[in-house]
Design brief:
The complex is a heterodimer of chains A (about 350) and B (about 270). Chain A is mainly alpha-helical and about 350 residues long. Chain A has one domain. Chain A has helices at about 1-5, 10-30, 45-70, 75-95, 110-115, 130-155, 160-175, 205-230, 230-240, 245-250, 255-280, 290-300, 310-325, 330-345, 350-355, and strands at about 190, 195, 200, 280. In chain A, strands 1-4 form a two-stranded antiparallel ribbon. A two-stranded antiparallel sheet of chain A has the order 2-3. In chain A, strand 2 and strand 3 form a beta hairpin. In chain A, helix 3 packs antiparallel against helix 11 (about 255-280) and helix 4 packs antiparallel against helix 6 (about 130-155). The longest helix of chain A is centred in the middle third of the chain and has 27 residues, at about 205-230. Chain B is built from 11 helices and 10 strands. In chain B, helix 4 packs parallel to helix 7 (about 175-185). By secondary structure, chain B is of the alpha/beta class. In chain B, about 40% of the residues are buried. In chain B, the strands form 2 sheets. Chain B has a 6-stranded mixed sheet, with helices on both faces. The chains are: A mainly alpha (about 350), B alpha/beta (about 270). The interface between A and B is medium-sized, with 23 and 26 residues.
Chain lengths: ~350, ~270
Amino acid sequence: MGIVKALKGDTGGQVMLAVLLVVTLVVPVLNLAVPETSFWHVSTYTVTLLGKYLTYALLAVAVDLVWGYLGILSLGHGAFFALGGYAMGMYLMRQIGDRGVYGDPLLPDFMVFLNWKELPWFWNGFDMFWFAALMAILVPGVLAYVFGYLAFRSRVTGVYLSIITQALTYALMLAFFRNEMGFGGNNGLTDFKELLGFDLQSDGTRAGLFIASAAALALGYLACRMIVTSRLGRVAVAIRDAESRTRFIGYRVERVKVAIFAFSAMLAGVAGALYVPQVGIINPGEFSPLNSIELVIWVAVGGRATLYGAVVGALMVNYGKSTFTAMFPEAWLFALGALFVLVTLLLPRGIAGWLPARRAG
Amino acid sequence: MGGQVERWQYLNPGKTLAETLDISHTTLLYVEGVTVSFDGFRALNDLSFYVDVGELRCVIGPNGAGKTTMMDVITGKTRPDAGYVFFGQSINLLELDEPRIAQAGIGRKFQKPTVFEQHQVYENLELAMAGDKRVWPTLTARLSGAQRDRIDEVLGIIGLRDHAWRPAGALSHGQKQWLEIGMLLMQDPLLLLVDEPVAGMTHQEMDRTAELLLSLEGKHSVVVVEHDMDFVRSIAKRVTVLHQGSVLAEGSMDEVQHDPRVVEVYLGE
């Protein structure tokens, strides 16, 4: 019922979810059931690549929710993604057990290497999947809540807010680079073995992660649609367009902002947690300010304030990145910059703005 | 006295501010001996001003007479150096902040119209509607039949029923002004403060606005600040003339127009 209502009039979203459903059903079959010699076989490499793109798409949806509908240009959403990824990475590290290079049953390799004698307190509990999954959502959520509470209460908006979100992710990157932080320093967390007892290298696990990523994207998309089609969503757009007027008709603007911002950060955390087991590593580079800027470009390319545009933008830009970097590795950043300039000048409403029958958000 | 209101509310958490309102003496707003100085300049000088329940009052005066400052004091934007401002006989407005004053039942329309341009006219009214405006109740809010009827009623009052599903940004300047008055009405205020409602309007739009404000008389108290004398003449029963921060004259339009002090102030300009 709620789902039907949330998708009413959202043609782009309906098409996107339908395509996603078909791909989710077909790709694992073509990967697992079709022999490798067949033309129709999809390699495990491709499955994992697609799964990674889907986590990026979920991250882009989270950014579009706050940028497109609430007018907050967050240039730090990569931080929430990375925190979710680290939570999952800590679980995967503890799953290695005594199979590490040093064979310590409790301590991950990098701690043995640093000559640590016991597990830092904040690593406790991460041997349990449910706890790690909870932290992958809660840690980004709480950080976004505290950060948002302080920033929005002081009525920091616009470009100043964007700058401090950049500072947030940059500060986290510097912190996670330090060995003393206990997150593996600049090497990060890697060499994972298994997830919930499933071998991470097996084709079946890869397909399972791909399906989980697709499901997370679909659910996250529907949740965002429910928010933007509710009265709260209309209040969010009102805040984006005339903040003080919204305050004047009796809404506590700061609370609306912090609630949606924190929800968006939690979605980003989920995306990060699904990303890490597929790429097999998480390191402080994920906090790089450049990452956060790049994902804003995905949303701009797809078309902000449409949600499905964010999905399309994330998939297209990343596909382009994968093919482009294979051919001209050095030129990618120039291509990305050119893309952003061209989209801003020629397609201010992104790819979604091209498509007909789109209702203004 | 305002402290008593606060305490009383604390003891009766179910009661809203509006329910504590005491208007048994038929006066809704008391502004008494209010003085406001900005860097030595007295914007309001021992101003006393009363508005009855259901009354439509026009306030005129030359530039700098203190009209907007008076509205700022009533809505909590500016704190006076001296004087009292009461809403009914029990609510001391000087002890409340802006949102609380709005909740108590005072709505204000600013000079420059601001509506939510991306939203439809209907949605603008929905957002302004009185009710629980916290985050979670807003997320799960559904319009009840009575609320739909209320929005429809207001659409009729402001004459925008045919435009209900258009984006507010597509409205003309005059229609935006009416929509903003409609948004005020959705908040169910007892007192509406309306600052220059016909600035930039055509004559036809002015006539519609006059009708609109006159139709509110009786149900709401309305205070209109306006420069346009023709417009004031068309709606005013009682007119208050402000000059240098205090009341120069008060009475019917004819009375104040022939008051020699008013003539002097306006001719002397």
